Amino acid sequence: MPGVDVACNAEQLPFPDAVFTRVECDAVLEHTPHPERIVREIERVLQPGGYAHLVVPFCHPFHAYPHDYRRFTPQGLRLMAGGMEVVAEGWRTGPTATLLVFLLEYAKLWCPWQPLRAVVHGLLGWLLFPLRYLDVLLRRSPRAYILGNHCYLWLRKPG
Fold it and tell me: Helices 114-128 & 95-109, crossing angle to 10 degrees?
């Protein structure tokens, strides 16, 4: 695959212990049957003092590539932190992003042909994108998390 340096099973990373200062895991854990194993591997390959950034969907349409097993909350992610310290947690995208993603997927349900779905996705996505800036205002709402689209966790390996 062009641009890919390593393709592997994330439950058994082909790296020695304590080799990375930072590991990014973005929209991966929902696609694996054993996300805890992947987080343990991330912890294993992190150097002491290293950081892991986990991003996962909460309110997001089904998207199998090839599988889609689960959704997460920050509290659920925290349960997988193991021996790592939670440095920060929050929502990467807010309620407006959630609404727009579902609206796009709903609109595409009415399109029987893939080329038409691609056109609808591109056109409607372009027209609706400016509305995502409403999430900047909604960040002040203490209830915005109820419809958060993706949540994140920053973890630090002690040492």
Answer: 150
Shared domain for 90 and 100, answered yes or no, is no
Instruction: Give the full edge-to-edge strand order of the sheet including 150-156.
Output: 20-26, 46-57, 150-156, 85-93
Evaluate if residue 127 carries a pLDDT over 90: yes
Task: Return the CATH number at 19.
Answer: 3.40.50.150
Please name every residue paired with 53 in a beta bridge, in sequence order, or none if there are none: 24, 154
| Strands 46-57 vs 85-93: parallel, antiparallel or unpaired | unpaired
Domain of residue 50, residue span: 1-94+143-159
Q: How many distinct structural domains can be found in the chain? A: 2
Q: Is 72 found in the same domain as 53?
A: yes
- Check whether residue 43 and residue 68 sit in a common domain: yes
Contact between residue 101 and residue 60 where contact means Cβ atoms under 8 Å apart: yes
pLDDT digits (tens, 9 = 90+) for 63-79: 988 899 999 999 999 99
